[in-house]
Amino acid sequence: MALYQKFVAHTKLRRVVVLFLLLLLFYIFRSMLSLFLLTFIFTFLAYKTIRKLRKFLPVSSFILTIVLYGLVVYLAYFALTKYVPMLINQTIQMVNSVVDFYEQTPAESNDFFAFIQKYIEQFNILGQLQKSATLILAYIQNFGKLATAIVMSFILSFFFLIEEKKTWHFSRLFLKGEVAWFFEDIRYFAHKFANTFGVVIEAQFLIAIINTTLTIISLSLMGFTQLPSLAIMIFVLSLIPVAGVIVSIIPLSFIAYSQGGLHDVILVLIIVVVIHLIEAYLLNPKLMSSKTELPIFYTFVVLLISEHYFGTWGLVMGVPVFVFLLDLLKVKPITHD
């Protein structure tokens, strides 16, 4: 009993044990990881949105929650019935344009693109694209699971926010009793997680929205078609720090060349570079805070490791989780508003 009391009194050791227990639970329920992460993201973003709306609208959180989620459901229904069929057709056209570019005989191309094709063949990029296509087919087969996770996460976040006060009041009951220290440590990690991971993922979403908007406006001025499918591709890639910008250049350059030749490719590269500079020197310092920025080397290492172990989710969540761990270990604390 004395050993147990010493363990409970040793806060640092206790929290390390609790953290490993939580990681073990996440590993056991790793098949539900998408549900957990999506629920947190939906809840966090909706909670932040409602708080900001209440500063301008003298309306209760209950009503704002119903209106916000009702609006999301309406927009989702509108998108599924009107834009999804069009999006599928445009995506097929976009993929066909990329394939047509690759299959073109380089004899009539300039030396630059002959050089690019040589390297494409050297690194067997076509084989990599085939592997990617196989992976995409696997994702399509698992689309039902992903759709279910999105719907369930949306419903869970709605119920959490619709009864926010009641939920928090009931949750505080766990801080009483024989193992109150255990739930106190869970609250400590949850608070840290929300204030670091949440802040970074919110900023990442805002940066992705701004990047996508600026890029799509620029591409529309250049006369690009298939803008809705391009917008989705750019938004998803913008959620991946640093690497997303580099990856997005490849399909955009292919489409630009098939549409307007080398001139359009150069314009696309200039647009991407300018938007990346805006992100690096304006958006990141303003939205992320300079204390959360990572050197590019660390960013790529984190992305490589997280993608290896967690797949696509690792690319999106790797950097925010790494920042959370840095804050937790007090290596590089994040600045909170």
UniProtKB/TrEMBL annotation:
Q: Which InterPro entries match?
A: AI-2E-like
**Sequence intervals crossing the membrane:** 20-47, 59-80, 143-162, 205-224, 230-253, 265-284, 296-326
Where located? Membrane
Q: Does the keyword Mitochondrion apply?
A: no
Q: Does the keyword Cell membrane apply?
A: no
Per UniProt, the keywords (alphabetical) are: Membrane, Transmembrane, Transmembrane helix
Q: Which GO terms describe its cellular component?
A: membrane
Annotated membrane topology: Multi-pass membrane protein
Q: Which GO terms describe its biological process?
A: transmembrane transport
Q: Which family does it belong to?
A: Belongs to the autoinducer-2 exporter (AI-2E) (TC 2.A.86) family.
Name it.
Answer: Permease
- Native organism taxonomy: Bacteria, Bacillati, Bacillota, Bacilli, Lactobacillales
